[in-house]
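Final paragraph of the annual report: two paired records, presented back to back.
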Amino acid sequence: MATVHIKHGMYRTIPVKDMAFTLVKDCTPGAKGNYITVNQNGHFGAAFPDIIRIKVDHMDDFEIIQDDDGVVTFSTPTRHHETDDEIMDRIGQRFEILDDMTKAAIRGDVKAMIVVGPPGVGKSYGVEAQLEKSTLFNRIVDINKKPKHEVIKGSMSPLGLYCALYKYSDEGSVIVFDDCDSILFDDVSLNLLKAALDSGKKRRLSWHSDSALLRREDIPDTFEFKGSVIFITNINFDNIKSKKLQDHLGALNSRCHYLDLTMNTMHEKFLRIKQIFAKGDLFQHYNLSQTQADEILEFMDENKEKLREMSLRMALKIADLTKVSTNWKAIATCTCMK
C-alpha cells in the first residue's frame, strides 16, 4: 500500500508539514489548486473524516513512499516541476493569446470565445483594453461613429440577453459577457446563446413569447446575429459535476474557442500579480517607493494561503493600507486574511 509524505500542504486551514499518510488518490487539479486524497490515519483526530484532501502548491511539495518488505524509501514524482519563470511564461503567453483573439473578434474573424480564469487576474482588463483601442481608432476615422461593442456584467434575464444580442447583431459588433454566469444556469438563455454562437452561415435568433419590451423598443421577434461574442467566466467548464449542465456547456464549447488562462493555485495567481507588477501596471496610480511595493508583494507571497483571495484587487487593497498607517501589515492581517 502506497504512502505519501507531505512536505508542505494545507488541510482546510491547518498547515500540513512533514507528515505521512496512506495514499488514496494521486495528486489531481481541483477548482482551487492541486489536491492529494489520503487517509488521515488519525493525525487530525476523530472529529475529522478519515478520507481527506490535502492541498499542495507544487509537485515537489510531496513524495510518494514505496513500502517494500517493511523498508520505506522515498521516491520523487517523475512529473516535470515548472519553475516560476516557466509558469509566468505560460501565463503570459495565454494573455497574449487573449489579446490576439480579442482583436480577431473585433475584425469578425472569431465569432465566439470563452475565457476562463480565476477572479481578479486581469481577464476583463485585457479584453476591454483592446475594445477601447478599436473604438478610439474608429473615432479618429469618424468622430460621430458610435462604439460597436458593449461589456455586460452581472445577472441577465433571457429577454435582456435577446435584446442585447439584437443591439449588437451587426457585422463587426462585439458583445462581452463578463461574469454573467446566470446565463449558464438558465435553459432559455443557454439556447439563445447557442443560437448566437452557432457555426452555421446564418445565426438566427427568435423570441416568440409576447413581450411589451420588444414592442416598446421596436425589436423584431426574429433577427440574424452577425456579431461576435466573448464570454468571460470564473467557472472552469472541466470542473462542472452536473451532467445536464455538462451537456449544455459542451454544446457551447463546440461552438467557441475556449481559452483557459491556467491559474489554478494561489502561487500561480501570485506569479501573475508579480508579472503585472514587473510591467509597471500594478501600482502606477500609487506613490509607492520600490521598497514599499516590494514589501507588499513579499507580504502577499508569505501569506498567500491565508489571504481571502489572491488577486489584483487584493494587492491594491493592501496598497491602500500603506496610506492608512505605517503599521499596515497588522491592519492587513486583520482585514485581508481569513
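The closing record of the year follows.
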Amino acid sequence: MNEAVAGWGSLLHFALAGVSIVWILSSKKDSTLAVAWCLFVILLPFIGSILFFVIGYTGIRRSKQLTRLRASPYRSHRAAGQAPQRPATEDRDPWSDLAWLSTQLGAQPEVPGNRVDLYHEAEPAYAEMIQAIREARHHIHLEMFIYRSDESGYRFAEALAERARAGVHVRFLFDAVGSWRLQRRLLHQMRDAGISVVPFWSLLDPLRRRFQINHRNHRKLLVVDGGVGFTGGLNVGDEYLGKYAFFGPWRDSFLCMRGPGVLGLQRVFAEDWAFATGESLTDAAYFPNLPAMGGVPVQVAASEPDQEAQTIREIYLAALMRARKRVWIATPYFVPDAGLFDILCLTARSGRDVRLLCPFRPDKWLPFLAARYYWTDLLKSGCKIYQYTGGFLHAKVLLVDDEWTSLGTSNFDNRSLYLNFEVTCIMRSREIAADIERRFHTDFAQCILVNPEEFANRSFIARILENGCRLFSPVL
C-alpha cells in the first residue's frame, strides 16, 4: 500500500514538474531565472511548482474589453500630449532625444507648461491633497498601494465623503494586498457616503481573473478634476507622518502637478480603473483642455508586468547611459538587475559622480541584506553609498546631471521594475533638478558614508546572509 502511494506520488510529481518546466521555459526570457525555477521545481516536489504558479508566473490575463479600453480615447493626443517627433540632428541634445526615446519605450509624450511643487515630508503633502479634495467640483480619483484605517485614513475618508455627498464623483482604488488591513467599517462608511471603492485584484474574486499575489499595484496617485495631480512615495497612514517610533521621522518625496501633464496621471488611473472594474472613463470631463500653469516639461511613464518593454526600467537604463556628470539615486530598496548594475558600475568607473542614498535602519531585512551584496562592486567602482540616519528613507528619486529627474513610486529593484504596477514623473528642468539636489545635500548631512575598507572587512556571517538573500533578487 505504501509503495503504491509512493509510486503514484512520484508519478504525480513528475507530471506536475513536467508541466511546470514547460511553462517556465515558455514564459521566462531570462535563462538564469528559468534554470533557477526549473531546479526549484525538480528539487522541491509539489512545493516548487506551487510557488512558481503563485509568485513565479508573471502572465496577466486581460479581457478583450480591457484590450479595447487600452486603445480608447484616453490614449488620444488630447489625453497624453501630441505625438513627438525626433529632434533634428542639429537640435538634438541627450535629454530631448531621451524624451523622444521614452515614448518609443511606452511612456506618454513629454508635455510642457506644468507647475510642479515638491514635498519631502508627509504633512505638507497631505495638507495640499486634502485641500485639493475639498475644492473638487466634478471628480476625485485616488489610488493607493497602502491605505491605513488610522487617524490619517479617516482624515482622508472624511474629506472624500464630504465631496461625494456633495455630488462629486469619487473613485478610490486600493491594492488588495498592500491594504489588506483596511477595516471593513471604514470601507462601509466610504461606500455609504457614495464613494466608489474598488480593490485592485480582489482577494475575494479569483474567478473573474486569475489572482496574482506577485503583481502588486504599487502606484500612489490622486487626480482632482483632471487639473491637479499628485504622485510619489507616500501612501496614506500615520507612519508616513512619523508617528511610529520604530521608523522615526519619515523621509519621502512627493509632487503636486498642475497643468496639462496631469492628464498623464489621469490616464494611468483610468486604465487601472478599467482593469479593476471594466468601466471606461473616457468622457471629456475627465480629460479637460488645460492651460499652461508653469514652465516644467513632464513626461509620465508607467510600468506594468505584462509590457513588452519594461518602460521605467528601460528609461532608467537610457538615462544612465547619457550621464556626463552625475547619477544620484534615492531608494529604500536597491536590488538592480544585471544590466542596470553593470551600467552603474561602468558610470562610476568612468569618473561620474555616482551616489546611492538608502536607509540605515531597514523595514524589511531580506531586500536590505540583498542590497548589501551589490555594495562591494559599487564601492570598488567608485560609487559613494550613504545610509540615511534621520529616520526611514522611502523616497524614490533619480537625478542625472543638472536637468533630468525622475520622481514617482518605483524603487530601484526588480520588484518595481518588472513585477509591480508603477508610475513615475520625468521632469526635464534645471529648477527642479536644483531643488532635488539641495534635498540630497540635506539628506547626505544626516547620513553615514559607507567606508569601503570597513565594509570589505565585515564578518563572514554577514557575507553569507547577503549572498543567501540576493538569491531572491528576481522577486525583491
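The chain has a mean pLDDT of 86. This concludes the annual technical report; the extension proposal builds directly on these records.
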